[in-house]
Amino acid sequence: MSEIITQLPILSIMTLFLGAFVIALVGRSDEKLRDIILMIAAGIPLILMLILVKPVFFEHQVITSWLGGWEPVSGWAIGIGVEVDALSLFFGLMVAVMVFVVAVYSMTYMNRDDALQQYYTLFLMLSGSVMGLVLSGDLFNIFVMVEIMTMTAVALTAFRTDYPGALEGAMKYLVVGSMGSTCILTGIALLYSQLHTLNLAQIAAELPKGHNTVTAVAFAFLFLGFATKTYLFPFHPPEADAPTVAPASISVMVSSVLTKCGVYGIIRLCYTIFRYMDKTSLQYLICVLGALSCFICVTMAFNQHDFKRLLAFHSISQVGYVVCAIGLGNALGLSAGLYHALNHTLFKGLLFLTAGAVYYATGSLDLDRLGGLSKKMPKTCALFLIGAASISGLPPFNGFASKWMIYQAAFERAAATSNFFFVVICVICLLSSVLTLASFVKVSQSVFFGQLSPEFERTKEVPAAMQIPMWFLAVLCIVTGVFPQAMQKVLLAPASADAMNSFNYIGVMMGTSKAAASGVTAPPAFSAPIIGLWNPVAWIILLLIVTCAVCLVSLTADPEKKAAKAVIGPARDHQPAIALMDAKEAKYESFFSGEESVYSQVGGSDLFWGFKHNLRHYFKTMGDWHSGVVNDYTLYGLAAMSIVIAFTLLFIH
Amino acid sequence: MIVFNYVASFALLAIGFYCTVTQRNLIKICIGLGLVDYGVNLLIVSVGFNAGGTAPIWTIRELTRQSFFVDPIPQALTLTSIVIGACTTAMTLSLIIKLKEQYNTLDTSEIRRLRG
Amino acid sequence: MKKYKKKAVIVRSCVNVLLPLSGIYGCYVIFHGNSSPGGGFQGGVLVAAAVLLVYLGYGGKALHKTFSEHFLHSSEAIAEIIYVLIALLGIFAGTVFCFNYVFPGHWLETSVLMNDAVGYHVMAGIAGLLLLMLSSFEEPEAESTDKPETAEAAGEEGAK
Predict the structure, then answer these.
(1) For chain C, how many structural domains are there in total?
(2) Cα–Cα distance, A217 to A127 (Å, whole number)
(3) Would C143 be classed as within a structural domain?
(4) What are the domain boundaries of chain A?
(5) Percentage of chain A modeled with pLDDT above 70
(6) What's the pLDDT score for residue A417?
(7) Residues of B in contact with A240 (CB under 8 A)
(8) How far does A26 lie from chain B, in Å, by closest CA?
(9) Distance from CA of C28 to the nearest CA of A (A)
C-alpha cells in the first residue's frame, strides 16, 4: 500500500516528539542517557530529510501520505494529509539542520542551568512542531503546530526566570503570538464555512469556483496570522524582546527558525493555495510590509545596548528582505527570497550562537561594558566576523549572493512592469544593507575590539563542544555563498517551481482529474532564472585589493602629522587590543579608543554619534513607539489587521 | 437565527481585542485573550451547524442518504481549540504569577524593562 | 485564608460521595469514548477533578499526601509515549501512520487504545496542572519577608 519513503516525513516529526516525551520520563535522573536521547532525536530527522533530498529535489517527486490510510473518497479529502514537495522539504532541511546544531550547542551552553530535562523536552517539542508545520498538508494541523510552537517558545523564552526581563519578554511574545494564532484560526473557520475542507490541496482546487468575499477575508486573516508568526513590521516588538532574554540557543530557534515558518506560510498561501501573487496590489502590500520591517528594524538596531537585542532587530530586518523578495511575485524574486531565508537562518544562527558564547564566557551582553574580547576569544571573534560579513552582504559570503539576487529580481521586476515602486523597494533594501554593515562595525568594535575591561581579564575561550556547531554554520555560510549557481540549480529552482505549481500540488494529493476539473492550469515549464553574471572569487580579490590600498594609504600618510600627533597624543598605559593601533595613528583615536582614563571605548551606542545626532528626532520617535507596553503592541497589531483586511477587500478581492 | 451566532462571535472578538488594547491589568489582558478564543470557538461551531440536524453520532448501518446531522469536523476543531485555549490561559496565568513575584505589579505600563 | 482552614463537614461529606463517582464516571467516559460522545479528553478532565475535590474537602496538606507530582509527570510522559508508539505501529507494520488495526474477532482496535492513552495523559496532565496551581496559592505566606526588596529593585529598573 505504501512505500516506506512516504512515511519518512511523519517519522521525522514523530521522532522529535517521541524524544521529547522520553526525555521527560527518564531525563531527570540520568544526564548521559538524556544527552544520548537528545542526539538520537535530533539526528534522525536530519538523516531522514537528507534521504528525502534525492527523490524530491532530483527526481521531482512529491511525497504524500494520508494518516491512517484515509484516502480521499470521490475527490473529497476526509483524512489528514502530509504533502512534502520541494518547498516543504527546503524548509524542512533548514529546520533539521538548525535543530541538530542547536541541540549540540545546548549540551554545553546550558550545562550551568538546572531542570534541564524540561528544557530539552520543550526544545524537542518546539522542533517537532516546526517540522510538523512545514511538512503538513492540512490547514488545521498547521494551526495546532503553530500553537505548540508558540507555547513552547514562550516557555523556553522564560526558561531562565531570573534573567532580567525574561518573563516580560515571554509575556509580550505570548500576547502578540496568540493574536496571530487567533487570526489563523478565524481564517480557517471562514475558509471552512465556504469550502468545507481543510486539506491544502483541496482548498487550492476548490478556490477558483468557490471564490467569494468570505474567502478573501479568510485570506486576509491567514496572511495576518502568518505575518504575525514572521513578526513582520507592526508585530515585530515581541520578536525583538524574546530573543533578547531567552537563552542563546532558544534565540536561534525563535529568530532564525520560527520566523521561517511564517515565511513558509506566506509563500504557501500566496503562491500555491490562493495564487493571488499575480495581483499587483498584493505585491505592493507584501513589499511594503517587508520594506518597512527591513528599514525600521535596522535603524532600531542602532540604538541598542544589548548584544542580543541588536541581533534580534537585525533578524527582523533580514526577514523583511526575504518578504520583500517574495512580494516581487516573479520566479527570480521567489528564488531570491528562499535563498535569503536559508542564508538568514545560517548566519543569524551563527551570530546568536557567538552571542551565546560571549555570554557563556563573560556573563554579560552589555555592549557598553564588553570590549577587546578578540584577544581572549580569538576563535569566537573569527566566527562572529564571518557571521557579520555574511549578514552585511560582503562577498564571498552567502549574504552577498542572496542580496545580489534580490536586487536583481527587483530591477528585473521594475523593468518588466516599468513600475517605479520596485526600484524604490530595491533602494530601501540597499540602504538597509549599508546600515546593517555600519551596525555590525559597531558591534564588532564594542565587543571584540577596542579595550579590554579589567572585569573580563580572566575570560577564556569557550569549550570546543560549543565551537564545533558554530564552525559548522560558518562553513555552511561560506559554502552557500561561494556556489550560488549550484544552490540555484539544486535547491532553489525546484523549491520555487513547486511553490508556483499548484496544479501538480493538487494533482499529486487529490488525483490529476480533480486538478484538471478544478480550473487550475498547469504553469508553463519552469525555467530556472539566471542569476547575474558575477563571480564571488573576483569580488573577494577586488575587496582585498581595495583593503590593501586603504591600508597602504593610511600607513604611508604624512609623517609630519604623525609625529605631531604622537607628541600631542596622551601617554598610554593600555594599548588597545588591535595591533594596527600604533600610537602614531592617534588621529583615529577618537573613533577607536575613546577616553583613556575610564575603561571605555567608544560606547557601543556612540560609534555613529554624528549620524544619530542628525536623525535624533527620528530615533526618538522610534524609541517612543517601541514603548515596551504590551497594550501598544497589540494596538499596532490590531491597526495592521484592520488595514490589511480593508486592503484585501478593496483591492485584492 | 444562526446570524446571531456570527454577530455574537465577532462581538466577542471585538470585546476581547478591545480588552487587550485598553486594559492595563495583566489579568484583564488574559481575560481578553480568553474572550477572543471563545469568539473564534463560537464562530467555528456556528459554521458547522445545520438547522434541524441531529448530533453527528451514527454507526455505519444507520447512516443513509436521508441522514441529516450537523457537521462533526467543526465540533472536533472547536474541542481542540478549546483545549489549546485552556493551555494558553494556564500558561498566561503562570507567567502572570511569576511576573507579579518579580515586579510586584500587574500594571503593563510598569512592566517595560525591554523597550526602545 | 486562615478562616477557612477548618473544613466544613458538609463539604467533606459531599466530597466523600462525589470522589468515587467522578472517578468512575470519568473512567466510563474514557473507555466508551470510541463509541459514544466523550472520549479521552473529557473523561480525563473528569477524573482529574478528583484533585480539586480532595483540595476542597481535605485541604492542601492532604492534597500533597495523596498525589505525587513526580508520579503524575511520569504518567503524562508514559501516556504520550504509548500514544506515539501505537500510532507508529502502523509504519512498522508496513502500512501508514495512525493506521487503525482491528484485531480480528475482537472489539479491540488500535484507535480505542489511542483513545485510552489520551485519557490517561489528560488525567495526569490536568491533575498535575491543578496540583501546581493549587500549591502556588500556599507559597506567598511562607516567604513574604524578602519580597519587597526585589520588587522595589524591579520597580526601579522598570521606571528607568
Answers:
(1) 1
(2) 31
(3) no
(4) 290-482+526-553, 554-623
(5) 90
(6) 86
(7) 114
(8) 24
(9) 26
